[in-house]
Specification:
mainly beta; Immunoglobulin-like; three-stranded antiparallel β-sheet; 2 helices; signal; DUF4124 domain-containing protein
Length: 189
């Protein structure tokens, strides 16, 4: 709380120091600063002393530093993959699976560069699966299905190609399909 008077003093001193003399008097709560030596009376206050202020530090604005010439944008890296599409399961198709294990087949042009560390990342019903796949044909396991699939008949699959550093290079359009599970109906005879 004591810093507020000093802050106000600093502002006051900075704005009026060149034009006026400043006086300091001891008050019951600490120093009191004023531009009058007598607190408004004709007689000087006991102990009022003139405050010697250092010269005002005025400096010229620094010279404008010329901006470096704008860099021409580097050419974007060559895009290796041109096409990534899910061919199985078919869009709008139905798969019969009681466990959720399903085969996935992709069309990738040019072919997946697995030897350079590129891999397929799969998203099922909006949830990324933990496994990556080094080929364009693979099976989703029943445990992956159970962990990610929503409890619905319609599902959505989306795949991406990821490089060794984890950067996504290309992502397919999401594909919707249906899963049919066999049930046993008990009818009264």
């Amino acid at each position: 709380m004591k810093t507020v008077p000093y802050l106000l003093l600093g502002i006051f001193v900075a704005t009026s120091a060149a034009a006026q003399t400043i006086y300091e008097t001891q008050g019951k709560n600490g120093p009191v600063f004023s531009d009058l030596p007598s607190e408004g009376r004709d007689l000087p206050s006991p102990g009022a002393t003139e405050v010697e202020l250092p010269p005002i530090n005025i400096s010229d604005a620094p010279a404008a530093v010329p901006k470096p010439p704008a860099k021409t944008p580097a050419e974007p890296p060559a895009v290796y993959y041109q096409t990534l599409a899910i061919t199985q399961p078919e869009s709008g198709g139905t798969i019969h699976s009681n466990t959720g294990q399903i085969s996935v087949q992709l069309a990738i042009e040019p072919a997946l560069r697995a030897e350079q560390g590129d891999a397929i990342v799969v998203s099922l019903d909006g949830a990324a699966l933990p496994s990556t796949y080094p080929t364009a044909q693979f099976e989703l396991s029943a445990s992956e299905w159970q962990a990610a699939a929503k409890d619905d008949v319609q599902h959505q699959l989306q795949v991406s190609i990821m490089d060794r550093s984890g950067k996504l290079l290309l992502t397919s359009e999401p594909q919707s399909f249906y899963v049919h599970r066999a049930t046993q109906s008990h009818r009264g005879r």
